């Protein structure tokens, strides 16, 4: 665990009286997660930021300008022990979690049969199981207090089958459905749930998923800071979901609602097929 305390704030851990609200952001070492952390910090939240990679330890210094306390926890949220490590770090603060952005996720590109099964299982472990696990550990305390906000980073990929990204699209569909379901369950509990649904965004996702050579990987991408801003504003407004980024994303979601799954799957295949971004393909 590493941290940066801004403005000379040397208050000891424990006791929330008089302290800022606390937000937890996963997948916060880069991309949308980092920008979400920045949004929360700029709006007065103290932060717990988490990610699997060592880069998370530089985030407290990177967010120093937010004038908020930032605590970084390196944990592999694709594993049971990793989620519990994060929860232990949060509980050690002795402060209630006001908001959580469950953002950590990975992608795996290519035909399912050609990929490594362990990569797909790890995707499910992070994108699905880890998200449910962390939600299950944070949500009861919010319900008990009668207040809280949850933001899930889903995707416009949730609205269609994803040939050459089969487990990724399925995982984002799960998150969207999960978010909408528990939102209804919590309607009278004082806790709101929002799904953030970005389209292609200018992050390291495409490189990590191995899909830079696809039409999707080479398409125009949205600014992660703008996506995060729209997600934060939707969360604070209590909206059920927001399709963030360009108008093209909103049009794609609208089309997916009326077109057969077989049609949207073929369209996704054309964009996601390995090598489809080559000018000769």
Element layout with pairings:
Elements: E1 2-4, E2 22-26, H1 31-42, E3 46-51, H2 59-62, E4 70-74, H3 80-91, E5 99-102, H4 117-145, E6 148-153, H5 166-185, E7 191-197, H6 205-209, H7 224-237, E8 241-243, H8 247-258, H9 261-272
Parallel strand pairs: 2-3, 2-5, 3-4, 5-6, 6-7, 7-8
Antiparallel strand pairs: 1-4
Helix pairs in contact: 1-7, 3-4, 4-5
What would you say this structure looks like, in words?
Helix 5 links the parallel strand 6 (148-153) and strand 7. Strands 1-4-3-2-5-6-7-8 form an eight-stranded mixed beta sheet, with helices on both faces. The radius of gyration is 19 Å and the shape is globular. The protein has a single domain, classed as NAD(P)-binding Rossmann-like Domain (Rossmann fold). Helix content is 43%, strand content 14%. It has helices at residues 31-42, 59-62, 80-91, 117-145, 166-185, 205-209, 224-237, 247-258, 261-272, and strands spanning 2-4, 22-26, 46-51, 70-74, 99-102, 148-153, 191-197, 241-243. It contains nine helices and eight strands. Helix 4 runs parallel beside helix 5. It is an alpha/beta fold. The longest helix has 29 residues, at 117-145.
How large a portion of the residues is in β-strands, by DSSP E? 5-15%
Shape: globular
Number of distinct helices = 9
Number of E strands: 8
What count of domains describes the coordinates? 1
What is the strand arrangement across the widest sheet? Answer: 1-4-3-2-5-6-7-8
Corresponding CATH architecture: 3-Layer(aba) Sandwich
Uncertain runs: 5-16
């Amino acid at each position: 665990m590493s941290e940066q305390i801004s403005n000379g704030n040397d208050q000891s851990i424990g006791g929330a009286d008089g302290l800022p609200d606390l937000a937890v952001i996963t997948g916060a070492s880069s991309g949308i997660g980092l920008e979400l952390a920045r949004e929360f910090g700029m709006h007065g939240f103290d932060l717990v930021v988490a990610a699997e990679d060592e880069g998370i330890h530089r985030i407290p210094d990177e967010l120093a300008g937010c004038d908020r306390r930032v605590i970084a926890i390196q944990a592999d949220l694709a594993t049971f022990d990793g989620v519990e490590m994060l929860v232990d770090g949060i509980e050690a603060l002795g402060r209630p979690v006001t908001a959580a952005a469950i953002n950590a996720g990975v992608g795996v590109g290519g035909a399912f049969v050609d990929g490594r099964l362990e990569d797909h299982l790890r995707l499910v472990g992070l994108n699905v199981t880890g998200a449910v696990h962390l939600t299950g550990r944070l949500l009861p305390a919010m319900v008990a207090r009668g207040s809280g906000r949850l933001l899930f980073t889903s995707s416009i990929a949730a609205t269609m089958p994803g040939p050459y990204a089969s487990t990724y699209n399925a995982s984002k569909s799960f998150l969207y459905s999960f978010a909408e379901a528990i939102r209804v369950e919590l309607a009278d509990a004082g806790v709101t749930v929002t799904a953030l649904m970005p389209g292609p965004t200018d992050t390291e996702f495409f490189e990590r998923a191995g899909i830079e050579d696809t039409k999707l990987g080479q398409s125009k991408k949205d600014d992660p800071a703008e996506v995060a801003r729209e997600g934060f504003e939707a969360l604070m407004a209590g909206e059920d979901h927001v399709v963030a980024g360009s108008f093209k994303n909103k049009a794609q979601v609208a089309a997916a609602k009326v077109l057969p799954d077989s049609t949207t799957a073929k369209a996704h295949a054309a964009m996601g097929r390995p090598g489809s971004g080559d000018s000769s393909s």
